[in-house]
Amino acid sequence: MLLKAKERGAQRFELFSNSPMWWMCKNHNPSGADDGGESLTSWNITQHAIYLSSIAKYAADNWGVNFESVEPFNEPMGGWWKSRGGDGSEGTSEGCHVERSTQVSIIHALRAELDARGLWQTTISASDENSYAQATATWLSFNDSTHA
After folding, report:
1. What is the pLDDT of residues 88-100, one digit of tens each?
2. Coil, strand or helix: which one is 41?
3. How many angstroms separate the CA atoms of 92 and 144, rounded?
């Protein structure tokens, strides 16, 4: 679909992640933690950054698609990303709650991995929250080096 969009004239592309890969999550479930809390294991923060930056590099080198930005998490402060529904059913949507301090770690790791692959022009898009109030609170929690 990405290549079809490019063929039809799309010129701006963003790579985004709903959730880290299943094996990076504490419960191996990309639908979220059992309790709606943070699911990404701390030792996989760099792995998540490597995964996303490797995709961006591959797309540039093999498909001629240069991502303008990479969004490493989607609606990260949402508490609704759970591995099971209230009725005990399996989670049906990919998502991962990511605490603000972990978001900072991911952003810095991702910047380093993008730079290591020569993708200096690729920006990091964060934080794509569910509401304006959440987005503002998250942005204000970031320090100057994270904003840069």
Report:
1. 677 778 899 999 9
2. coil
3. 36
